[in-house]
């Protein structure tokens, strides 16, 4: 992802609105004399598109979770730290969906997003990417520290990923043998919000593993294994397969 490509990407919303304004205006001009009802629809479309164009072009930061296209466009145009962080985030997102394993996420992209001081939303996203890499390397201790930082400031994350974050944290606490902490995080994850079934099964399996209930864990590992092909990201599918095998070996070693 280059800076120019990203500029075109964030300009897409306003440009689409401007196109809608032009097309609606042309329709209004030609239809008004002969088809007033159709012209009325064109006038309504023109108004809506004009309003959306103005809103998306305004450089507003509505909250810590949402910047308008205008804000992102002018940040990228000015350059500096904010532009560098946005580009690093875009590149990391591109890498994370390319099929490589989380362990291979470029650390320099993660570091480029982070900033010192109290963690903001982008820093927390960077730490989430790092925790996935640590989990993939079976570095449970550091993954635990990373996810504890994120869950401490989880109110800064978009609601859509909070449940998944709690589930990942519960899995890591379980892998570190902290049954009580894993169970608490699992309760916080609850049943509302998005999460894939393999993540839910793995988190519950890790809780049972930490509690020493290895026999009861096996059906959950079977469920996780069945659901892994439905995980969207290829790299995460590989990591989850390894986690299932790790927990199976744990069960086999205990029963031997």
Walk me through what this model shows.
This protein has 256 residues and is mainly alpha-helical. The chain contains twelve helices and two strands, in the order ααββαααααααααα. The chain has helices at 3-31, 36-57, 69-78, 81-96, 107-113, 121-136, 140-152, 159-175, 179-189, 197-210, 214-227, 234-255, and strands at 61-63, 66-67. Strands 1-2 form a two-stranded antiparallel ribbon. The longest helix is centred in the first third of the chain and has 29 residues, at 3-31.
Based on the model shown, name its key terms:
single chain, 256 residues, mainly alpha, two-stranded antiparallel ribbon, 12 helices, elongated
Describe what is shown at a glance.
The chain is mainly alpha-helical and 256 residues long. The protein has helices at residues 3-31, 36-57, 69-78, 81-96, 107-113, 121-136, 140-152, 159-175, 179-189, 197-210, 214-227, 234-255, and strands spanning 61-63, 66-67.
* Average pLDDT rating: 88
Label the structural class: mainly alpha
Please give the number of β-strands: 2
Strand order of the largest sheet: 1-2
Low-confidence stretches: none
Whole-Å distance between the termini? 51 Å
Count every helix, treating DSSP H or I runs of 4 or more residues as helices: 12
* Element string (H = helix, E = strand): HHEEHHHHHHHHHH
Shape: elongated
Please state the CA-atom Rg, rounded to the nearest Å: 24 Å
Helix content: over 70%
Biggest β-sheet description? 2 strands, antiparallel
Strand content: under 5%
What is the topology?
Elements: H1 3-31, H2 36-57, E1 61-63, E2 66-67, H3 69-78, H4 81-96, H5 107-113, H6 121-136, H7 140-152, H8 159-175, H9 179-189, H10 197-210, H11 214-227, H12 234-255
Antiparallel strand pairs: 1-2
